[in-house]
């Protein structure tokens, strides 16, 4: 059953059915959607060339909250996404050598410490910004794999030293080259000048945090 609504008209009255009313509302909603989408694209266009999803997100915030300066959101949003992409890429590179990124951190820290490639667990943890408990779990795994060895510290009767084995040394060298190759691949579309400029800007940013 169709319900009729009587509304005033210049020449009297006219009946408007509920089905007509529903169609009108539907058209209004569609028009509103088009209007919102157009406004969003206009906001993004004013921000400059759209190159990634971050621009779309910033455009939405600019439409909804034009009082906010979202420049910082763009900077850190891109840093976060780049970190995830680079982390995943290097993780896959390290996996070819049977190690995870956490394992690589230990091997790389020992490798770059220089000959004799050994450190105390405390120094190792401090270099990686980890707790000694978190470091112990990694060392247990790596020692079982034959990549590191623990021995008593000759200068401290209660201390121990962690050193790279020959196998650990070889894997550290291969893994760091493979991981770096992935990072360079991600930067390949930038010129050397732009890459150096980006590095300098990030250094300045990090130094001020």
UniProtKB/TrEMBL annotation:
GO terms for biological process: response to stress. One of its GO terms (molecular function) is DNA binding. Residues 72-207 form the HTH marR-type domain. Keywords: DNA-binding. It comes from the Bacteria. Pfam families: MarR_2. SMART domains: HTH_MARR (SM00347). InterPro entries: HTH_MarR-typ, MarR/SlyA-like, WH-like_DNA-bd_sf, WH_DNA-bd_sf. This is DNA-binding MarR family transcriptional regulator. It comes from Actinoplanes xinjiangensis. The lineage of its organism: Bacteria, Bacillati, Actinomycetota, Actinomycetes, Micromonosporales.
């Amino acid at each position: 059953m169709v319900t009729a609504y009587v509304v005033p008209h210049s020449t009297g009255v006219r009946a408007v059915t509920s089905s007509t009313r529903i169609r009108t509302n539907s058209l209004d909603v569609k028009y509103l959607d088009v209007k919102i989408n157009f406004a969003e694209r206009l906001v993004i266009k004013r921000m400059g060339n759209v190159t990634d999803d971050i621009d779309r997100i910033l455009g939405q915030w600019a439409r909804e909250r034009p009082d906010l300066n979202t420049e910082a959101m763009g900077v850190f949003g891109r840093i976060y996404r780049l970190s995830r992409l680079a982390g995943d890429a290097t993780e896959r590179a390290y996996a070819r050598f049977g190690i995870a990124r956490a394992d690589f951190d230990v091997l790389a820290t020992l490798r770059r410490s220089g000959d004799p490639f050994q450190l105390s667990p405390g120094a190792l943890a401090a270099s990686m910004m980890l707790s000694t408990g978190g470091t112990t779990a990694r060392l247990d795994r790596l020692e079982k794999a034959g990549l590191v060895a623990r021995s008593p510290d000759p200068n401290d009767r209660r201390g121990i030293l962690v050193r790279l084995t020959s196998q650990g040394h070889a894997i550290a060298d291969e893994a760091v080259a493979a991981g770096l190759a992935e990072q360079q691949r991600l930067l390949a579309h930038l010129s050397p000048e732009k890459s150096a400029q980006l590095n300098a800007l990030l250094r300045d940013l990090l130094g001020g945090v």
